[in-house]
From TrEMBL:
Listed name of the protein: K(+)-insensitive pyrophosphate-energized proton pump
Its biological purpose: Proton pump that utilizes the energy of pyrophosphate hydrolysis as the driving force for proton movement across the membrane. Generates a proton motive force.
Class of enzymatic activity (EC top level): translocase
Needed cofactors: Mg(2+)
Quaternary data: Homodimer.
Main location as per UniProt: membrane
Secretion signal span: 1-19
Membrane topology classification: Multi-pass membrane protein
Family: Belongs to the H(+)-translocating pyrophosphatase (TC 3.A.10) family. K(+)-insensitive subfamily.
Keywords: Cell membrane, Hydrogen ion transport, Hydrolase, Ion transport, Magnesium, Membrane, Signal, Translocase, Transmembrane, Transmembrane helix, Transport
Transmembrane feature ranges: 51-73, 106-124, 130-154, 187-206, 310-331, 352-375, 387-409, 430-458, 478-500, 563-584, 596-617, 668-686, 692-712, 754-775, 781-799
Upper lineage: Bacteria, Bacillati, Actinomycetota, Actinomycetes, Propionibacteriales
Organism: Cutibacterium porci
C-alpha cells in the first residue's frame, strides 16, 4: 500500500498543479502546437491517382502482410516437435505470459502520468472538450499496439524454439536455420502491417482536425509501452542471465543445466528482453518516426497541395518497402535453400547478411520508381530524385550499420577473437578490457557512418534550388526534413530488421530447450524418435548446430540495436525541430532563433544536463540488474540440488527466480520512468531553450553511449561463444574468464544500451506537450515554482534508483566495519 501510494501521489500532485495552471494561467503560445495540427483533405491527385485511393490500397496491402504473418504462425505451430521439448517451451511461454500480465497492470499505472498531462493540455489549455477522450483512447491504442506485438512475438518465438531444437536432431543445418527465420519474418510482417494499418486508419477515417492530436496521443502511448517493456524486459532478462551464468563458475555445471532453477527464468528473460523489447521498440520507432514527419510536413510546408503530395508519398513508400521486405525474403529463402539445403555445415550469418542486402537494394529500387511516379511533377521537377537519394541514404545505412556491427561482435571478427586471446593469458581482466576497446572503436566508426549519410542527405537537400521555398530559413527546414527522411529510410526494411533480430531469441532458447528437456536421458528415445518422426537423431551434431546458430543469433541481435538507436537520434532531430518551429514562429522571429546558440546560457546548460541524465540512466538500469542478480544468485545457491539423483530443478524454484526477476525489473523501471518523466517536465518548465539543449544532448550522448555499450557487450558475448563452440573449452579457466566478461556485457548490451532508444524518443515526444504547457502558462513565479517541484521529484527518484535498490541496504555501519575488518581492509 505504501509503495502504491508513493507511486500514485506524484500523479495527483502533477494533475492538480497543472490543472490549476490551466484554469488560471494566460495562454501565450499554445496556438501553434500539435493541438492545431490539421490534416488536409487527402483526395487530391498524386501520380494521377487520388491520394485517398492510394492510401486505401496501401491499407489492403497491409492486411495481406498481416495475413502472411498469421499464416506463417499457423504453419510453425503445426511443425513436429518432441513432447519433452514441447513441455519446456510451453513452460517458458506460461512464465512469459505471467510476466506480461504483470507488466500490463504496471503499464496502466504509468499511463496515468501521461493521461494527466494530456488532459490538462488538451482539455484545460486547448479547450477541446470531449475530443480529449478520443486522444486518450488513441494513447491507449498506441500502448496496446506496442504491448500486443510484443505478446505476439513471444508466442511465435516460443512455438519456434522447441521446433528448432527438434529439427536440429535431424542434423540438417538448413532446417534448423529455416524455422527461426520464418518466425522472425512472421513477427516483422505483423509488426509493420499493424503499425501501418493503425496510422492509415487515423489518416483515412478520422476528421482532419482530430487526426493531428490523435497521432500525438497514439505516438506517446506506443512510446510509453515500448519504454516500459524495453527497460523492464532488459532488467529482467539480465538478472536471470547473470544469475544463471554465475552458477556455471560457482558449481562448474554445463550451459543450461536442467538442475539450475535460474535457467527457466533465463529463457523467459530471453523473450522478455530480446523478443518483447525489440518488438515493442520497433513498433514504436516506426510509428514515432512517421508522426515526426507528419508533424514537420503540416508545420513547415505552407502549400496544402504539397502537404498532401508529401504525406501520401511517405505512406505509399512505406507500403512499397513492406512489399520489398516480403519479396526479398522469398528470393533470399529460395537462394539460401538451393545453396545450403543439403550441406552438413553452413555459416548461419551468410544468409542473414544476404537477406539484409537484398532487401536494401530492392527497397532502394522500388523507392526510386515510386517517387518518380508520384512526385515527378512536383516543384521544379527535381524533387523526386532528391527525395529518392535522401531516403536511400537511410536505407543504405540499414545495411551498412549491421556490417560494421559484425566487425565488432561477430564470432568471425578480429575484435572478438582479440577478446578471447586476451582472456587466455590475462583472464577476466584482459577479457573485459578488450571488450571495452571494441565498444569504443565501434562508437567511432558507426558515428562516422551516420554523420556521412546524414551529411550526404543535407548536401542533396541543398542542391540547386533545394527542396523548394518554405519561407524563412527554408534551407534549414529542408535539411531537418532530410534528416527525418534518413530515419525513415533506416526503417524502410523494418520487417527484415525485426526478423533478423527475432532470429536471436529463438536460437538462444532452442539451445536451452534442448538441454532442459533432458531428451537424451529418456529411455529408448532414439528408437521412439525414429518410429514417430522417421529419422534417427544425431545428438552430437544437433548440439553443435544449435551452439553455432546461437552465435549467429547473438551477432544479429547486436546488429539491430544501432539501427534502432540511430533512428531514435535522427528522428528526434525532426521532433526537436517541431518544438523550435513553435517557439520561433516558424523561424521568423530572429530574437528567438538567436537563443538556439551557445551564447544563450539556458541552451548551453541544457546541453550539459542531458549528458548527466544519460549517465544516471545507464547506472540506474545496471543497478537494478546488479541487485536483482544478487538476490537471484542468493536464492539459486541455496536451492540448487546437485546430488546424483537430481535431474531437474523444481518448477516452484524456477518460478521463484522468475518472481525475483519480475520484482526487481518493476522496481527499477518505476524509479527510472518517474525520474525521466519528471525531469522532462521540470526542465521544460525551467526554460524552453534549456529543454531544447537538453533534448539535443540526450540524443547525442545517448547515441554514443548506446553504441559503445551494445557492441562491447556483443563482443564479450560472442567471445564466450567462441570458447564454448570453436575451442570446446567449457569448464576451463578460459571459459570462466569469458563468462565473467559476458556477465559484465549482459546489462551493457541488453539493458542500458537498448533502453536508451525508447527513452530518447519518449522524452522528445513527451517534450512536445511539456514545452507547450510551460509556454502556455508563461514565464513567471508560478512556472519556476512548478519547475523546482518537478525537478526535486525527479531527483528523489534518481536518488531512490540507487539508494532504494542497494544490495545490502539493511546493513548498518557497524556491520560494514565488521565485514571490512574480517577482510583485512579496515574501511
Amino acid at each position: 500500500m505504501k509503495r502504491l501510494l508513493g507511486s500514485v501521489l506524484p500523479v495527483l500532485l502533477t494533475t492538480l498543479a497543472l490543472a490549476g495552471c490551466g484554469s488560471g494561467g494566460e495562454a501565450k503560445g499554445g496556438g501553434g502546437g500539435e493541438a492545431n495540427l490539421k490534416l488536409p483533405p487527402l483526395n487530391e491527385h498524386v501520380g494521377n491517382v487520388s491520394g485517398t485511393t492510394l492510401l486505401w490500397i496501401g491499407l489492403v496491402i497491409c492486411l495481406f502482410g498481416l495475413g502472411f504473418g498469421l499464416v506463417t504462425y499457423s504453419k510453425l505451430q503445426k511443425l513436429p516437435v518432441h513432447e519433452a521439448m514441447h513441455e519446456v517451451s510451453e513452460l517458458i511461454y506460461e512464465t512469459c505470459k505471467t510476466y506480461l500480465k504483470q507488466q500490463a497492470k504496471f503499464l496502466m499505472l504509468l499511463w496515468a502520468f501521461i493521461a494527466a498531462v494530456i488532459v490538462v493540455y488538451f482539455l484545460f489549455l486547448e479547450h477541446m472538450g470531449a475530443k480529449v477522450l478520443i486522444i486518450l483512447l488513441f494513447s491507449l491504442i498506441g500502448m496496446a499496439g506496442s504491448f500486443g506485438v510484443a505478446w505476439y512475438g513471444i508466442r511465435v518465438n516460443t512455438f519456434a524454439n522447441s521446433r528448432t531444437a527438434h529439427a536440429s536432431l535431424r542434423g540438417s543445418p538448413w532446417e534448423t536455420f529455416d524455422i527461426p527465420m520464418r518466425s522472425g519474418m512472421s513477427i516483422g510482417m505483423v509488426l509493420i502491417s499493424v503499425e501501418l494499418t493503425l496510422m492509415l486508419f487515423i489518416m483515412l477515417v478520422l476528421p482532419g482536425d482530430l487526426a493531428g492530436p490523435c497521432f500525438i496521443g497514439f505516438a506517446i502511448g506506443e512510446s510509453l509501452g515500448a519504454a516500459c517493456l524495453r527497460i523492464a524486459g532488459g532488467i529482467f532478462t539480465k538478472i536471470a542471465d547473470v544469475g544463471a551464468d554465475l552458477m556455471k563458475i560457482a558449481f562448474h555445471i554445463k550451459e543450461d543445466d536442467a538442475r539450475n532453477p535460474g535457467v527457466i527464468a533465463d529463457c523467459t528473460g530471453d523473450n522478455a528482453g530480446d523478443s518483447v523489447g525489440p518488438s515493442a521498440d520497433g513498433f514504436e520507432t516506426y510509428g514515432v518516426t512517421g508522426v515526426a514527419l507528419i508533424t514537420f510536413v503540416l508545420g513547415a510546408v505552407p502549400d496544402q497541395t504539397e502537404q498532401v503530395q508529401l504525406l501520401v508519398w511517405i505512406f505509399v513508400v512505406r507500403v512499397v518497402m513492406l512489399i520489398a521486405s516480403f519479396v526479398s525474403y522469398l528470393i533470399n529463402n529460395a537462394v539460401a535453400k538451393a545453396r545450403y539445403g543439403a550441406v552438413a555445415e553452413m555459416d548461419f550469418e551468410k544468409p542473414l547478411s544476404s537477406l539484409v542486402w537484398i532487401t536494401s537494394v530492392i527497397s532502394i529500387l522500388l523507392t526510386v520508381l515510386t517517387t518518380w511516379w508520384m512526385l515527378s511533377s512536383m516543384g521544379d521537377g527535381t524533387m523526386w530524385w532528391k527525395l529518392s537519394i535522401i531516403i536511400s541514404c537511410g536505407t543504405l545505412a540499414g545495411a551498412l550499420i549491421p556490417e560494421l556491427v559484425k566487425a565488432f561482435t561477430s564470432t568471425n571478427s578480429r575484435h572478438v577473437r582479440e577478446v578471447v586471446t586476451s582472456a587466455r593469458e590475462g583472464g577476466a581482466s584482459l577479457d573485459i578490457l578488450s571488450g571495452l576497446v571494441a565498444g569504443n572503436f565501434s562508437g567511432f566508426w558507426l558515428g562516422i557512418i551516420i554523420v556521412a549519410l546524414m551529411g550526404a542527405s543535407f548536401l542533396v537537400s541543398g542542391t540547386g534550388s533545394g527542396l523548394g521555398d518554405m519561407g524563412s530559413m527554408s534551407e534549414v527546414k529542408w535539411a531537418v526534413f532530410a534528416f527525418g527522411l534518413v530515419a525513415f529510410g533506416f526503417l524502410g526494411m523494418g520487417a527484415v530488421t525485426i526478423a533478423v533480430d527475432s532470429y536471436g531469441p529463438v536460437t538462444d532458447n532452442a539451445q536451452s530447450v534442448y538441454e532442459l528437456s533432458t531428451i537424451e536421458e529418456i529411455p529408448n528415445v532414439s528408437d521412439d524418435i525414429e518410429k514417430h518422426y522417421g529419422f534417427a537423431p544425431r545428438w552430437d551434431v544437433a548440439k553443435h548446430i544449435l551452439e553455432a546458430q546461437d552465435g549467429a543469433g547473438n551477432t544479429f541481435k547486436a546488429t539491430a540495436k544501432p539501427v534502432l538507436i540511430g533512428t531514435a537520434v535522427v528522428g528526434a532531430t525532426t521532433m526537436i525541430f517541431s518544438i523550435i518551429m513553435m517557439l520561433t514562429e516558424g523561424l521568423s522571429n530572429a530574437a528567438e532563433v538567436n537563443k538556439l546558440g551557445l551564447t544563450h546560457a539556458p541552451f548551453l546548460l541544457g546541453l550539459i544536463a542531458g549528458g548527466a541524465v544519460i549517465y544516471w540512466f545507464s547506472g540506474a538500469s545496471m543497478q537494478a540488474v546488479t541487485t536483482g542478480a544478487y538476490r537471484a544468485v542468493e536464492f539459486i545457491k541455496n536451492n540448487m540440488q546437485l546430488d546424483e539423483n537430481a535431474t531437474k530443478a523444481s518448477t516452484d524454484d524456477s518460478k521463484k527466480v522468475v518472481q525475483i526477476c519480475t520484482e526487481y525489473a518493476q522496481k527499477g523501471m518505476l524509479n527510472i520512468f518517474l525520474g525521466v518523466f519528471f525531469a522532462a517536465l521540470g526542465f521544460a518548465f525551467v526554460d524552453p531553450y534549456f529543454f531544447i539543449g537538453y533534448l539535443i544532448s540526450i540524443a547525442i550522448f545517448g547515441l554514443y553511449q548506446a553504441i559503445f555499450m551494445a557492441n562491447a557487450g556483443g563482443a564479450w558475448d560472442n567471445a564466450k561463444k567462441i570458447v564454448e563452440v570453436d575451442l570446446d573449452a567449457k569448464g576451463t579457466e578460459l571459459h570462466d574468464a569469458s563468462v565473467v566478461g559476458d556477465t559484465v556485457g549482459d546489462p551493457f548490451k541488453d539493458t542500458s544500451s537498448v533502453a536508451l532508444n525508447p527513452v530518447i524518443k519518449f522524452t522528445t515526444l513527451f517534450g512536445l506537450l511539456a514545452v507547450e504547457l510551460a509556454v502556455s502558462i508563461g514565464a513567471g513565479l508560478l512556472t519556476y515554482i512548478l519547475a523546482a517541484m518537478f525537478v526535486l521529484i525527479a531527483c528523489y527518484f534518481v536518488y531512490r534508483s540507487f539508494y532504494g535498490m542497494r544490495i545490502d541496504s539493511t546493513k548498518g555501519p557497524d556491520e560494514f566495519d565488521t565485514v571490512a575488518k574480517e577482510a583485512g581492509t579496515g574501511l
